[in-house]
Amino acid sequence: MISQMKPNRIVLLLILLTAFALRIGAAVYWQERVVASNYVFFFGDSDTYWQLAASLAHGQAYQYGDAGEFRIFRMPGYPLILVPLFWLFELSGQIPPVFSARIVSVLFGVATVFAVTLPTRQLFDDKRIANVAAAFVAFAPLQIVSSVLVLSEAPFGFFMLLQIDCWLRTIRTGKRRYAILLGVLTAVCVFIRPGWLLFLPFAAVLHLLVTTFADKRCNLRLVTNYAMVTLVFVVAMSAWWIRNYEITGRFVPTTLQTGASLYDGWRPDADGSSDMRFVEEFRKKFPVQSPTYEYDVDDSMKAAAMELAKENPTRIAKLAVTKFVRIWNIIPNEPSFSKPAVRLILAITYLPIIIAAFVGTFRLKIPFATTTILWLPAIYITLLHTIFVASIRYRTPAMLCLAILAAGMFCGKCSRNHK
Question: Which regions of 109-170 does DSSP assign to beta strands (E)?
């Protein structure tokens, strides 16, 4: 059967198998390391996702905390992905092992390697370029790491690439069905990662401006399609918004973690990294029994963060520069991960892609408006994390899109143009 496959498909299959092997090996290593440290999960966020998934699987209220006080703590996208694990293992009277969740992340990681070929083939009429982009993602250390954690990174990267692919199809064909699907995929991305909420208006406005400047006229079909995308997105999100309003009496578009994230980024001892120890002090100010407890805690942290910004805006600006460096740093920011070998591996898998993507922006035969789409996730993520906390981990989704440009640059010129 393999002998009947075309060479490019065989290469892609080998890349996918290698990606799977690397991620399975990393998952086994990481699981053993976590267990040896007497942890169930290394990250606290993983535990919250796990407990929320268990609640959904058992038909219980979607809430977290000893008293169930956190009802808008996490978006339900990633917990829903974990729900089938509970159903599957409980058929035999077992609780799903943590490693099963890592397998789910591994599968999403491998699917992401394949997914990067979809927008690549939209831009380049050459399967070799799609395979090179897949190879970049398959061997990228940060992509491998994100594929073994019980966190939302791996699923988000996969669905974000589907979003980008659908976006390119919407622009290229102008067909309404792609606009509808784009609205759905955008909602899926937000349900997995709430920080993606403003990407749609941010990206649509910027792309319209660039397109209008390039064509010297407003593309009415594009405007109509973006209106359709927005409408579908609003409908897809409406059930979550209605639920949140019923709980708080206020409009909450994603979660009640914005205040905590904002204060984390601007706290008095902020250095760009995360340290959430302050949260407990804010929670003590309000009675847990209050029906608006979760909202009040979030609102108080948000107000405190804004007060810090008003008192010293220069400090906030300097922190933004620090966070920018932390996002796009060549070497890991954490000293514990800054061994010479780790630095070297990260540098040789990162620098060529970022440099080739930048050069390719100006040298590849792709309209600048289309190239802009591949840079918008990087721009949006950068702006977002210069406000909140920053780490090289957060640039991982952006690198998926930049790998496409880098692959085109490494393989030569583009032969398919979009307007």
Answer: none
Q: How far apart are CA 222 and CA 108, in angstroms?
A: 31
Q: Count the domains in the chain.
A: 1
Side-chain-side CA neighbours of 185 within 13 Å: the count stands at 20
Residue type at 380? Answer: Y
Q: What is the Cα–Cα distance from 67 to 351, expressed in whole angstroms?
A: 48
Query: According to the model, what pLDDT value does residue 417 have?
Result: 41
Residue numbers of the domain that contains 313: 115-411
138: tokens are 């398959």
Q: What is the pLDDT of residues 348-372, one digit of tens each?
A: 999 999 999 999 998 888 888 888 8
Give, as one character, the DSSP assignment of residue 197: T
d(CA 370, CA 413): 15
40 lies in a domain?
no
Tell me the pTM.
0.94
Four-CA torsion 343, 346, 348, 349, nearest 10 degrees: 180
Rg of the chain over Cα atoms, rounded to whole angstroms, equals 22
Sequence-separated (6 or more) residues with CB below 8 Å from residue 180: 228, 229, 232
In this structure, are residues 67 and 288 in contact, taking their beta carbons and an 8 Å threshold?
A: yes
Cα torsion through 290, 254, 378, 136, rounded to 10? 100
Residue 251 confidence (pLDDT): 96
